[in-house]
Design a protein that fits this description.
By secondary structure, this protein is an alpha+beta fold. 24% of the residues lie in helices and 25% in strands. It has 4 helices and 5 strands; from the N terminus they run E-H-E-H-H-E-E-H-E. A 3-stranded antiparallel sheet has the order 2-4-3. A hairpin with a 4-residue loop joins strand 3 and strand 4. It is globular, with a radius of gyration of 16 Å.
């Protein structure tokens, strides 16, 4: 049985400022020759590796891409109008993430 998301949004805005992506190490190596080469390639494009898990063949990357719906104080301007929020906002986070300010937990 998979982990279940519990809790609620604390409006910290962290998930709206940083784009996070999980990639497959073996596919990255096939494309770039090595993980080190890929890390250099992505760093020039503003992305950085934040977690590498060889056992699961996964690498976590992130880059700063703030949502255009964030207010000056980093709050979501659509938070109280759910019908206007994009689907990704309703579903995020879909997996465990290491955002300490996030109100969601997975159990």
């Amino acid at each position: 049985m998979g982990l279940k998301r519990q809790g609620e949004c604390q409006m910290c805005g962290e998930c709206c400022r940083i784009f996070r992506l999980t990639c497959v190490i073996s596919e990255i190596v096939a494309q770039h020759g090595s993980l080190e080469e890929a890390e250099t390639y992505y760093s020039f494009r503003g992305a950085r590796f934040v977690h590498v898990d060889y056992d699961l063949d996964r690498v976590g990357m992130e880059m700063s891409i703030p949502c255009d719906k964030l207010t000056a104080d980093s709050k979501c301007s659509l938070h109280h109008t759910p019908e206007k929020k994009p689907l990704i906002c309703h579903r995020y986070p879909m997996a465990r993430d290491d955002i300490k300010t996030c109100g969601y937990r997975f159990r």
